[in-house]
Amino acid sequence: MAKIHYKIVQHDGGWAYKLGDGFSEPFRTKDAAIAAAHRVAAEQHIPGDSALISYQDENGVWHEEMSQGDDRPDADVIV
């Protein structure tokens, strides 16, 4: 099982949660960003449907793979 960490950071004049290089929308307060990150982390644990996904890697190469709906990451929030 993959483990992912949402990090709380100052961003765009407010606060946001960040995963990798991606930021959420900005929140006015740190507490609001923390609450939103906890909601998103909890949603990561909800199983979904299996689906064929396509994605492009950092070298511009496209890949296709089957994403299993019950293969969910373990997500947490780092404040």
Please provide a written account of the structure.
The chain is α+β, with helices and mostly antiparallel strands and 79 residues long. The protein has one domain (3-78). The chain has one helix at residues 30-43, and strands at 3-11, 14-19, 22-23, 51-56, 62-67, 74-78. The strands form 2 sheets. A 4-stranded mixed beta sheet has the order 3-2-1-6, covered by helices on one side. The longest helix is centred in the middle third of the chain and has 14 residues, at 30-43. It is globular and about 40 Å long. It starts with a strand and ends with a strand. 10% of the residues are buried. The mean pLDDT is 92.
Chain-wise SSE layout:
Blueprint: E1 3-11, E2 14-19, E3 22-23, H1 30-43, E4 51-56, E5 62-67, E6 74-78
Parallel strand pairs: 1-6
Antiparallel strand pairs: 1-2, 2-3, 4-5
Organism: Acidisoma cellulosilyticum
Protein name: DUF2188 domain-containing protein
InterPro entries: DUF2188
Distance between the termini: 22 Å
Instruction: Spell out the helices and strands N to C.
Output: EEEHEEE
For the largest beta sheet, what order do the strands appear in spatially?
A: 3-2-1-6
Low-confidence stretches: none
- What is Rg? 15 Å
- The 3D shape can be described as globular
The percentage of residues in β strands lies in 35-45%
Structural class: alpha+beta
Overall average residue pLDDT? 92
**How many strands?**
6
Biggest beta sheet summary:
4 strands, mixed
Number of domains: 1
What is the number of helical segments per DSSP (H or I, 4+ residues)?
A: 1
Helix content: 10-25%
Pfam families: DUF2188
Organism: Acidisoma cellulosilyticum
InterPro entries: DUF2188
Protein name: DUF2188 domain-containing protein
